[in-house]
Amino acid sequence: MTQFARARRKKRTVIIPLGSTEEHGPHLPLDTDTIIAREIARRAAEDTGALVAPALSYGICTSTALHPGTVGFSPDTFRALLRDLIRGFHAQGMRFFVLLTGHAGGLHVNAMREVGEEMLFALPDIRVALLSAYDLMKSETSDLVETKGDSHAGEMETSCLLAIAPGLVTGTAKKEYPTFPKAILVRKKMRYWKSGVWGDPAKASAAKGREILERVSSRAAETVRDLERFRE
Ligand SMILES: [Zn+2]
Predict the structure, then answer these.
(1) pTM for this entry
(2) In CA terms, which of 25, 55, 208, 219 is 20 to 30 Å from 184?
(3) Residue 179 and residue 184: Cα distance in Å, rounded?
(4) pLDDT, tens digit, 9 for 90 and up, residues 115-140
(5) How many Å apart are CA 70 and CA 28, to the nearest integer?
(6) Structural domains in the chain?
């Protein structure tokens, strides 16, 4: 309480890490996205002095919803939670919000954007930035990551976990590149995506993970500084 009271007098930026509880293949923990988002947030905060909120460890999962271990929110619940978190931190003096997600599901990322747009008008004195660890990894590490189309529980996420929490990685997994029907929504997702891996975990290493985290976190720190300087 006293640390927070002191901190908010100097800094009004909060990074809210958003994760998921979601299958990440046979080899990574269900909270992989939360672990990665929290780590990037922690590093970006170290760089910038921003505050880091406790992570929200559940999100909106669709393509993995039926795989063992996935537990998520409906979009309505998730949007309501994000609104309440922003209002809550605003009431506590925060003005600059960075929503940083480790989970890249389409509906999840859309919901973040919807709430961000809505809150800009509901609270006229705030600024909002949206960051996705997956997008940052794609844009910052294309020379480093070997797997084309790496996405879920593959080379990038496995490398990050090997760097952050190697004890939580149980071996490796086979590569998979699922294809879902074009345009048609399917109920039985596991028929099209067996292993829950999208990419090639065999290409992962702790050294790669350290480099990915370094680059992605310094990009996230830049966003924090951009947001604080930003004038419309
Ligand atoms: Zn993930």
Answers:
(1) 0.97
(2) 25
(3) 12
(4) 999 999 999 999 999 999 999 999 99
(5) 13
(6) 2-229 (3.40.50.10310)
